[in-house]
């Protein structure tokens, strides 16, 4: 299980040490990916609001063809279109699913948002069916909120 307190502290220390969001987003993906065997692919997409596209910022796992995803497409694009996290226990049940790997059985997408504005998302795929619990969503959500803070601070 992910030690969320530890990662939040690490992010805060990186901020205070002058690291930019780029490094913090990469470190977060690395730490999440190492935390649990069921997290087989972990990535962060950032929303490009001009093009209404999600752009893959960084990931750990098998290479994916989906480096850019239009809002409304797949599980990732649906999360943005509906403004809601997606916890999909069985990806074969999703009509417009964008497959990264035939091994993926379930997927969790947690939005990175600042108030009403969606900045991006943390996307996790698992080779295990129904891998993600409410606790996973909650813990990943705490990291997403921290990353939103980091991204917004760079706008000031
Ligand atoms: N499965 C996602 C696409 C991203 S990959 O999982 C890396 C989707 O349906 O949007």
Report on the structure:
With 156 residues, this protein is α+β, with helices and mostly antiparallel strands. Helix content is 37%, strand content 26%. It has four helices and six strands, in the order ααβββαβββα. The protein has helices at 4-16, 21-35, 74-82, 134-153; strands spanning 41-48, 53-60, 68-70, 86-88, 106-114, 117-126. The protein has a six-stranded antiparallel beta sheet. A hairpin with a 7-residue loop joins strand 2 and strand 3. Helix 1 packs antiparallel against helix 2 (21-35) and helix 2 (21-35) packs antiparallel against helix 4 (134-153). The N and C termini lie far apart (34 Å). The mean pLDDT is 97. The structure holds methionine sulfoxide. Methionine sulfoxide binds next to strand 1, helix 3 and strand 6. Residues 41, 43, 64, 66, 69, 74-77, 97-98, 100, 107, 123, 125 line the site of methionine sulfoxide (SME).
Summary?
The chain is α+β, with helices and mostly antiparallel strands. The protein is built from four helices and six strands. The chain is 37% helix and 26% strand.
Strands side by side in the biggest sheet: 3-2-1-6-5-4
How much helix, percentage-wise, in residues? 25-40%
What is the number of E strands?
6
Low-confidence stretches: none
Question: Helical stretch count?
Answer: 4
**Structural category:** alpha+beta
The whole-number mean of residue pLDDT values reads 97
What oligomeric state do these chains adopt? Answer: single chain
Order of helices and strands: HHEEEHEEEH
Characterize the biggest β-sheet: 6 strands, antiparallel
Question: Which small-molecule species are bound to the chains here?
Answer: methionine sulfoxide
The dominant shape is globular
Strand content: 25-35%
How big is the Rg? 14 Å
């Amino acid at each position: 299980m992910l030690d969320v307190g530890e990662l939040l502290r690490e992010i805060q220390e990186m901020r205070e040490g002058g690291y930019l969001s780029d490094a913090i987003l990469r470190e977060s993906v690395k730490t999440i990916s190492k935390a649990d065997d069921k997290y087989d692919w972990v990535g962060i997409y950032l929303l490009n609001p001009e093009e209404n596209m999600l752009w893959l910022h960084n990931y750990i796992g098998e290479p994916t063809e989906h480096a850019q995803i239009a809002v409304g497409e797949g599980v990732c694009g649906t999360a943005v279109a509906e403004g809601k996290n997606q916890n999909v226990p069985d990806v074969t049940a999703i009509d417009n699913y964008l497959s990264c790997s035939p091994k993926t059985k379930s997927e969790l997408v947690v939005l990175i948002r600042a108030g009403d504005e969606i900045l991006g998302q943390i996307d996790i795929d698992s080779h295990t069916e129904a891998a993600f619990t409410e606790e996973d969503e909650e813990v990943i959500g705490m990291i997403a909120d921290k990353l939103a803070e980091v991204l917004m601070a760079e706008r000031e």
